[in-house]
Specification:
This protein is an all-alpha fold and 306 residues long. The chain has one domain: ABC transporter involved in vitamin B12 uptake, BtuC. The longest helix has 30 residues. It is globular, with a radius of gyration of 19 Å. The relative contact order is 0.21.
Length: 306
């Protein structure tokens, strides 16, 4: 395959994988605290709509992007109330959040379908964009893509080199031992839920403010579920999540290009490719459980301490 074909495809993989990367990092952050959140899709779509509306009415995509993160945090806070206050089932609560988010976004967003909003445009990074091969692939995007390059590094340092990060992981690994040492496990789990929701909201905002610059029904199109699967594929490691997100982004970009080229393959089969890969990835990951960094107390509720 010639560079004229492979370079644009890889650049599209980075762009398509960025919203998945934001959401995957958010879910990793949440699960590191011991809370399973299957409501990623719901938090993403709420973030996408919030970012779109704020940007449209204020003219500031940056403000819309931040507002989307806050909206994602507020949405996942509902999950926190159910799981941390009322000790509800985390799986059921997450599914309910996805249904709530999709329904709410469709209801509020229907009048805005097809309308546009100010968003982020690509720009070349001086010097770096001129590097052969790597420059066009990684350094000719919008600012949100460049921000996503930094977040995995910051997250790894936070989780492995800071007191708060280590305490958050303790809340997900050994909540009883963490409580015995004086840590407020519930507080750290709240941090995981709200902090993770912020990144999920940012992932949704990328779709409406950078990827499309407009609003449409079902904008997230199952990317939240892909993010949940990618957490397992990445073995709960932010660095590995980058590879996984770009892999799925590449499959999405490939199927869009194949449809545009007029291929004889059924469009239904092409649309199925990312989700078929999701199933394959889950099966493959299940064979390597020994290398996983899954929190030992993931999905286990903790009684609030007095």
């Amino acid at each position: 395959m010639s560079p004229e074909i492979i370079i644009p495809l890889l650049a599209a993989a980075v762009q398509s994988g960025t919203p998945i990367l934001y959401a995957t990092l958010g879910e990793i952050f949440t699960e590191k605290s011991g809370v399973l959140n299957l409501g990623v899709e719901g938090a993403m779509i709420i973030g996408a709509l919030t970012g779109f509306l704020v940007s449209r009415y204020t003219g500031s995509p940056a403000l819309g992007f931040l507002a989307a993160g806050v909206a994602g945090s507020l949405a996942t806070a509902l999950h926190g109330i159910v799981c941390l206050w009322f000790l509800g089932n985390q799986v059921v609560s997450g599914l309910a959040l996805t249904i709530l988010g999709a329904g709410l976004a469709n209801y509020i967003g229907t009048p805005f379908v097809g309308l546009s909003a100010p968003g982020f445009s690509p720009f070349a990074v001086p010097f770096l964009s001129s590097i052969p091969f790597l420059g066009p692939v990684f350094f000719q995007h919008d600012i949100l893509v460049y921000v996503s390059y930094c977040i995995p590094v910051v997250m790894v340092l936070f989780l492995t080199r800071t007191r708060f990060g280590l305490s958050l992981r303790a809340a997900g690994e050994y909540p009883a031992a963490a409580t015995a040492t004086g840590l407020n496990v519930i507080a750290y789990r709240w941090l995981g839920i709200v902090g993770g929701g912020f990144f999920m909201g940012l992932g949704g905002a990328y779709l409406s403010l950078a990827y499309t610059h407009l609003w449409t029904t079902n904008l997230t199109a199952g990317r939240g579920w892909i993010a949940v699967a990618l957490v397992i594929f990445a073995f709960w490691r932010p660095g590995r999540a980058v590879f996984g997100a770009y892999l799925f982004g590449g499959i999405m970009a490939l199927q869009l290009r194949m449809q545009a080229s007029g291929t004889q393959i059924s469009s239904s089969i092409l649309l199925m490719l990312p989700y078929a890969l999701t199933v394959f990835v889950l099966v493959l990951s299940s064979w390597r459980k020994g290398t996983s960094e899954e929190p030992a107390a993931l999905g286990v509720n903790v009684e609030p301490t007095e």
